[in-house]
Amino acid sequence: MLSLRMRASLGGRHVSGAERIVRREELDSSVLELLHRPKLYDSLTITVESLKEIHYIEKAMEITNLELPNYERAREEVVELLSYKIDRPILRKTISTIAKGAAPSGGNMRGAMLVDIDTGQRLEPDRERGVRTVRVDWEKRKEVMEALLREGYTERTLDALALATKNAHCGVLAELCWSDDEDYLTGYVASPELGYVRIYPLKKLGDPFGGRAYFIRRGDLQRVIECLRERAFLIKSL
Q1: Within this chain, do residues 37 and 115 fall inside the same structural domain, yes or no?
Q2: 3-state SS of the chain: helix, strand, coil percent to 5?
Q3: Does residue 78 sit in helix, strand or coil?
Q4: What is the per-residue pLDDT across 16-45, written as a single tens digit (0 to 9) for each?
C-alpha cells in the first residue's frame, strides 16, 4: 500500500490538500484525481511513500448535525458540548485563538494546535505550522463516499470524518475545527464520547480565519504526535 499526499499553495498560502492510501495499481488514477482537485495554485507537491504497516479501524465516528441561529450561539454550543471534559475558560480561550489566527504571525496554521486538556497551554513544537494528521483513508472510499452523498454530505465531510476518527484512536481526547475557507461556515467538534458533531455556522461569511485544536494529555504528547504523523490507518465503514 502507498501513502499519497497532495498539497497546493498560491502566493505562499495553502489552498488545497488531500490524503489517500492506495494500492499500487490505483496510483496513476489517484494521482490524476489529486492533480485536478485544486482550482488555482502556483505550487503543487505530490508525495508518494510506501507503507510498511496498516492499522485498521472498524467503524468511523457517528455523525450528528446541529444548526444554530448565528456563529456566536454556535460557539457557545461548542463550550456546552465539550464542557463535560474541558473547563469552559480553556474552551473559550481556544475558540478565541482560532478566531483571530492561531499562528504567532497572526495567520492561520496549516496543522492543528495541541492543547493541554487540563491547563489550556499549547504544546505543539512549531506554533506556525502546528501538527498535521496524515496517512488515513477509507478501506472502501468510493462506497463510503456514495453513502455520504446519499445523505447530503460532500467529500469534505468524508475526509474530515476520517481525520477525526484517526485522531481519537491516536489519543486526541476532543477536537474543535472550522475551515479558513471564507465561504464554508460549518465546523465540528469530535470526541470518542460525542462522535463527530457538525455545527453550523461556526463563523460569519467572509471570515478568513479558521483552524483546528486537538485536546490531549501533556504526558501523551510525543506518542500522539508520532501516531498522527506516522501511523497509517484505514477505516472500514461508517
Answers
A1: no
A2: 30, 30, 40
A3: helix
A4: 888 899 999 999 999 999 998 888 899 999
